[in-house]
Design a protein that fits this description.
homotetramer; alpha/beta; 6-stranded mixed sheet; two-stranded antiparallel sheet
């Protein structure tokens, strides 16, 4: 049972640019995070996009869906910005692929002290292995179905939509 | 569905002592790791032991079993040294409690650069939520049944015993 | 010979705000950085300002000058944003106080992986102890006189103005 | 005015070995620490030894002295274990080379959370640039003459011998 990990950008993968003082995208941190995690489970890393999720449009979401549809691996983790993670999950959810797809991200970039990124990656990898087919969001130590989740922006947490 | 996280020591929780140059136990790093993980799932932290797992004996394993047996939470993560994680899992497995118990640990202490600890904690928390009743070991991005796992000391990884 | 360390903000002291995704000011990181540095030299920490140095105006620079003038300690380190560090150094330089004043900062925040902040702080503390009276900028492992320094923004380094 | 940085091992440069659980020597962390420090001052790195300073003998100290004597750079930082830093400083001090030699180290390894290593490296680099010819120890934010320093092992700090 092998795993595909798809990078799409988001807070998880932001780097600090010393010249501009901005948080930007560079090569994904995921390959080094996965080495550090000492995973022996066979897995494939796919650097698909490097976007702030507020900059994602329908075309980007279709690209993500295509990657999932064509994936030889049935267990997929997508690292994604939190702001529109729900929207991407919805596109994937409606497609109803016979695969287990788990979206995760971070509230603090992997490279910044006190980041939740590595915890979330571990949590999402386990969820992608253990959940049945379907699409879910793994954040805050919880697993949410794609059609029952929203981001509470004021609190900075994900919660059930109902 | 709430979670109990039990600290027993192990590499995960080692601190560096500047006076002796040794790795030792102090207050567990788990409370701060759990804050950092931004878990909203209700959870309880229990600092039970602070031992190198090579120093664990039958009495210690019975203590761990008692904690699990008396736990009000049915989903339990035990942070444990890797060297005798299998032995503790076996004691818990034979007890056949109607609970989901997942043991995890780390090959590199949480406080040392490049540690796998936070990934493993995330992975184990998801496994403890998603697996059915039983005892397993979550390491290297995999979930092993308590009666089919061994630590390969030369390679520093867990693998199936068969 | 005791030391005064004055925080004024700048990249050195930026925190990540998980709710907005911006780098902002909170309580200075300097008290914990100084504990970590294990300094036994008597020293005083003064949290004076928390500003991006591009937001500093003449009033702020006068405040910094007043702090230096009234300081009971003759050896002063000022942690400052890099963009207008030279301008503040000039105000202090013209005042010609009978004190050793060293400005430093960081190209990467203290709390972000790979930061130069702690190195620069150590470098500046030594310069503040060892240089004679006057005002200098300590960055990039070098000490620049206040009237012979400029920031090369394209390269992200400080260099001689001549 | 260029700088030579000599690695000899010590706590500063200890790595964690996941297979044995011991702190050991690997490739020095200094090259990456120096990149991180964004030093533009010309400098040379020399990986001379990789030893616990308790394992250093007279032959090793002579090697260090030879490196200093033959160094084309007149400003030298030696990263050294703290336990016998004073003894090495004494050998170098008696040699009375016409160079500025500063020994430093760390109470917590560079790769462990809360390390003083990077601060000490910055402090020592400034001292090596700014002090006159002679041998000193830079630790705890202070500069000690080679013949007036001792390590207080109970407190884990360096202090004047008198």
């Amino acid at each position: 049972m092998s795993l595909r990990i798809i990078a799409t950008g988001g807070t998880f993968d932001k780097h600090y640019d010393p010249l501009t003082g901005n948080l930007v995208f560079r090569d994904s941190v995921l390959p080094s995070a996965l080495v550090r995690a000492r995973i022996t489970e066979p897995h494939v890393f796919e650097p698909l996009l490097a976007l702030d999720s507020l900059d994602m449009n329908d075309t980007h979401r279709k690209q993500i869906l295509q990657s999932c549809a064509h994936s030889a691996e049935d267990h997929i983790v997508i690292v994604h910005g939190t702001d529109t993670m729900r929207e991407t999950a919805e596109v994937l959810g409606h497609a109803a692929l016979a695969k287990t797809i788990v979206l995760t991200g971070a509230m603090v970039p992997y490279l910044i002290a006190g980041s939740d990124a590595l915890f979330n990656l571990g949590f999402a990898c386990a969820a992608a292995k253990l959940c049945g087919h379907g699409v879910s969001i793994a954040m805050n130590g919880r697993v949410f179905a794609w059609n029952d989740v929203k981001k509470n922006r004021a609190a900075g947490i994900f919660e059930s939509a109902h």
